[in-house]
Design brief:
The protein is mainly beta and 253 residues long. The protein has one domain. Helix 1 runs antiparallel to helix 3. It is elongated. The protein starts with a helix and ends with a helix. 34% of the residues are buried.
């Protein structure tokens, strides 16, 4: 019984220590501040959420006082108007309609690595929707690539209903369970810089949708989650292994 207890204890000690936690949350009420949680302060730096207002331009469909993309001040969300998008939400097809944010890893300890597990937010469509309209986003990261379906980490489509669509909770899986993610977000070390992008597209019966005021919205809190992992030093593992080997030998005598 005592021997079994020692083996279990040894197994627990050998295993890496990790703790799942919220790493960064984003204030999407403007200016999109990336707030690093206390447990990761000094280990991770977050870029602000950037709707790229100037890069995408002004709305040319009767909304000249508004930009195509930006923060909806006071309403906790950041938006993309339909006139700023194309029929595709794939960067490989040439769309320029995307939001971007990211983080950098720089303060991990010698035996620490960072694993990202998922990114969550709410996705909502508002405005004047035709029944045959669809709006959609595709989620990408430079850790995998900015191109086509093989790089896409997640996506969602909202179908028009003549009024307002229902918001949905989005959970982007960054673990190996997502075949496109693989191990790209596992075992991150100091010097790692990551960029994430949300690309937007929309159609009406297969054509570019720029007739009515459809708005796609990302609501806060947009959150990046993960684990901070501590891996035992090889010398410590060797010492523990030697001790258990000795115990096994003594038991057999």
């Amino acid at each position: 019984m005592k021997f079994s207890f020692l083996i279990v204890t040894f197994t627990l000690v050998l295993s890496v220590r990790s703790q799942a936690a919220l790493i960064v949350s984003y204030d999407l009420d403007g200016p999109g501040t990336g707030v690093v949680q206390a447990g990761f302060s000094g280990k991770v730096t977050a870029d602000n959420y950037d709707p790229r207002t100037g890069s995408i331009g002004k709305d040319g469909a009767g909304f000249d006082e508004n930009t195509i993309s930006g923060f909806s001040t006071g309403n906790d969300n950041v938006y993309m108007r339909t006139t700023g998008t194309t029929t595709s939400s794939l960067p490989g097809d040439g769309t320029n309609a995307y939001h971007t944010f990211g983080l950098s890893v720089s303060g991990l300890g010698v035996n620490e690595v960072l694993n990202l597990t998922n990114i969550t937010f709410d996705y909502i469509g508002t405005g004047s929707w035709a029944s045959n309209a669809t709006a959609y986003f595709s989620f990408f990261s430079d850790a995998v690539g900015f191109d086509d379906f093989n790089d896409r980490l997640g996506n969602k489509t909202l179908n028009g209903n003549g009024a307002i669509t229902t918001g949905v909770a989005i959970d982007i899986d960054l673990t190996s369970s997502n075949s496109n993610a693989g191990s790209a977000f596992t075992g991150l070390t100091n010097g790692t810089d990551l960029e994430f992008r949300i690309y937007f597209g929309d159609t009406v019966s297969g054509s570019e949708y720029s007739v009515t005021n459809v708005i796609q919205r990302i609501y806060q809190d947009l959150e990046i989650n993960g684990t901070l992992q501590t891996i035992p030093e090889p010398s410590s593992l060797l010492l523990l292994l030697s001790a258990v080997t000795g115990l096994v030998w003594l038991r057999r005598r």
